[in-house]
Every structure is written in C-alpha cells, then in structure tokens.
UniProtKB/TrEMBL annotation:
GO function term, MF aspect, one: identical protein binding
Family of this protein: Belongs to the glucosamine/galactosamine-6-phosphate isomerase family. NagB subfamily.
GO BP annotations listed: carbohydrate metabolic process; glucosamine catabolic process; N-acetylglucosamine catabolic process; N-acetylneuraminate catabolic process
Protein name (database record): Glucosamine-6-phosphate deaminase
Species of origin: Streptomyces griseoruber
tRNA processing found in the keyword field: no
Amino acid sequence: MEVVIVPDARSGGELIAEAMAELLRRKPDALLGVATGSTPLPVYQALAAKVRAGQADISRARIAQLDEYVGLPADHPESYRSVLRREVLEPLGIGMEAFLGPDGTAEDIRAASQAYDAALAAAGGVDLQLLGIGTDGHIGFNEPCSSLASRTRIKTLTEQTRVDNARFFDGDIAQVPHHVITQGIGTILEARHLVLLATGENKADAVAATVEGPLAAVCPASALQLHPHATVVVDEGAASKLKLADYFRHTFVNKPEWQGI
C-alpha cells in the first residue's frame, strides 16, 4: 500500500486532483468514483480549478456514485445524487448523462443494488475510486464487520451515523433515513485504483488500523491491503499513529510513485 503524507487537506486535494487529471490525459473517458462528505471537497475544488485553467479535460469523463440514501427523492437537496450534482458535476461542467448512481427510490432495493453493480461493469469498471474513512474504519457505508466480499446492497445506518448526519437535515434526526444503498467492499475493490483521503487526528486510529493493522472485518478499510493499487493520502494529524510514518515520508517524498501510473 502506498501512503503519502501531506502537510494539510489542501495539499492532499491538489495531489489527488493532479492524479485524476493525469488519468484523464491517458484515458479521457475514465470513470471516476466519487464520495460525499467534507473530506473530499478539496479534491473536487482543485480538479475544478484545473478544468478552468485548461489543465484538465473532463469533457468525456464519467462519474460514479459510492452510496445513496434509501427513500429520499433524487431531487431532495440532501440525497447524495443532489449533493454530488452541486459539489462535483456542476463545478466540473459534467451533465447528468455522464453520471452513474444507484436508485434509492426503487421498490425493489435488492434488484436496484444488483442493477448498479451490473451498470458499473457494463461501463468498463471504475478507473479511480476516491474514498473517505470513518473514525471506526468504515468505507462507503460498510460499517465494521461488513463482509470483505460484499456487493452493492442495502445497509442500516447506525444510530451514531444518523446523529452525525442530522446536521444536514436541520439538526432533526427524524429526517435522516434509516437505510442506504452502498457499494460493497467487494465492489469497491474492483476499481483499478483506490485512493483514500483522510485528514485530522480523529482519523489517526482508523488510518493506522487500515495501513498497519491486520486484515479484519472490524476495520472495513483494511480490505485495501488486498488491492494491487491502493493509495492512502493523509495529513500529519491522520498520520500521527502510523509506526512507519518516517518510512512513508522517505519513500513517497516529493513526487509519489503512484502519480501517472
């Protein structure tokens, strides 16, 4: 696993955005997997800046969604489809015709989940999947003890996750859905390149368990150890519990080996 330690979130966003831009130079119609939340925002902002500056051509790129609430209308302002439209698609000038996402309003959620896996495969698979990580090591909505071979499926949100997400629903937990569709860990591992971004000391334990801990369902992100091309980008706070931090700084200093691959 490649671990790149950066000074701050902005630097991490710039680094990953440049990797995406380089991927698009080699494969203009690349399928980019994106995640919601505050952590990846510096990536999207940096990539949008490159597009405006003519440093990245995203006209043929496609975007794939990681997860979605069940039961929220697609046009609800807090559906992840709406969030990604505001934070990713519109700033990049990408239309919804280039967007792939699961149908959280389907009557048969199991069938909708299977259909999304099939759609990703039919699109040629995800070329680069951007991931965040929870303080408990979850990726997507694959909470601890999720199967490491799991496919896209419905998951029940933990009470803590609903409490955390209530801030997006006027602080009213009653408005937060109880279920989501999420790409499974097995689905996520099919992307050609996995890039996990983590910032802040509150993510340090999860990052250490992911990178240096055992492969274990209790830390779903540890499944990245199984992937042939996984990169973890962390700021100093998130790297603070890594025993091999100095090794990573020495190995991936200045220009990380994974850029341009």
